[in-house]
Amino acid sequence: MDLMVRGSVVSATTGGRNLDQDLPLLVFLHGAALDKTTWQLQTRYFAHHGFSVLAVDLPGHGSSDGPVLGAVEDYADWVAELVVAAGFGEAHLVGHSMGALIALEAAARHPQRASTLTMCGGAAAIRVHPGLLAASEQGEHLAYELMSSWGHGKPFHLGGHQTPGLWMMGGTIRLWERAPAGVLASDLHACNDYDRGAEAAGRIRCPALLVRGSQDIMTPSQAAAPLREHMADLQEVIIGGAGHIMIVERPDQVIDAIAGFLRASGSSGLSV
Known about the structure:
Elements: E1 2-5, E2 8-13, E3 25-29, H1 40-47, E4 52-56, H2 72-85, E5 91-96, H3 98-109, E6 114-120, H4 130-137, H5 142-151, H6 168-177, H7 183-193, H8 197-203, E7 208-213, H9 225-230, E8 234-239, H10 246-249, H11 251-264
């Protein structure tokens, strides 16, 4: 479906069900230069288990109109407007990687819009290797190859996709290849420049969940230390064998982690 936010078209998927204002809303936010399709299994599950679901292409990403916003803080304000544009007062915010930073900042800046906060591959800050930044700025294919290699856990470098015959690392690279020129560089700079994570964590008042892959080298455990220190109500789930892109590597375990968290948080969704 399409929504209008700030006069621009936002492309979203609803997991195969129409939005229902009588159900709690789950908003899924993708990572750098990716799009809503990375959440396809999670969106379908929750849309059929008691939630209204929106997995969106961020501005200038996927099928959404631009411009690319360029800063985590700007995306966070945009998310708050998205929730209202969809016809809801608040939402359960779920983000991966850059999307996790956006969800964190959105929940801190707009607490009235956040029922809960889930960060997959989240951290207080995501520092980007200078070589990766340079490759992305030059539009070099090396940037995609580095992102895929560092983003996936070792078990998934040679296989491991739930669908027989599909290559996980190659599929992720194809997503980055189809992103508009300059989007990856802009997103990586947005991540690298964001330095408000610890402050934002201290302002979170809703229940929060951190989902990490045990082999995540892009947002390792120490990168989340300020979240643990400053969040009064933070739960943590570690998915064994997964890397940074655990939402694709171990989609069922991610679903289980989010579902368990929402149940424990008293969400009115999650029909059997």
